[in-house]
Design goal:
Layout: H1 2-24, E1 27-28, E2 31-32, H2 37-48, H3 58-68, H4 72-93
Helix pairs in contact: 1-3, 1-4
GO cellular component, one term: mitochondrial membrane
GO biological process, one term: intrinsic apoptotic signaling pathway
Family: Belongs to the IFI6/IFI27 family.
Length: about 90
């Protein structure tokens, strides 16, 4: 049961923590904040790729998360994890 609780807590931390960390780095709904770590990452990625940021790259993915938040799949997984924990709690209490 401890592993399941640990996994659920880890998933919860990821669902909440990742968007916060991405925002702190400067990736947001209005774009990448000038002078931020995200802006430096984008600049480095663009220089490495000849002027553009490659689709699917770390920078592109972080900007996507910053703009849209956590994908619905991650939110659904967190909800399902909570439901499983609730069911296991009830089973263990019997």
């Amino acid at each position: 049961m401890g592993r399941i609780i640990g996994a659920a807590v880890g998933l919860g931390v990821a669902v909440v923590g990742v968007p916060i960390a991405v925002h702190v780095l400067g990736f947001g709904s209005a774009g990448i904040v000038a002078g931020s770590i995200g802006a430096k990452m984008m600049s480095a990625a663009a220089i490495a790729n000849g002027g553009g940021v490659a689709a699917g790259s770390v920078v592109a993915t972080m900007q996507s998360i910053g703009a849209a938040g956590v994908p619905a799949v991650a939110s659904a997984a967190a909800t399902a994890g909570g439901a499983v924990l609730g069911a296991l709690k009830d089973l263990c209490a019997r």
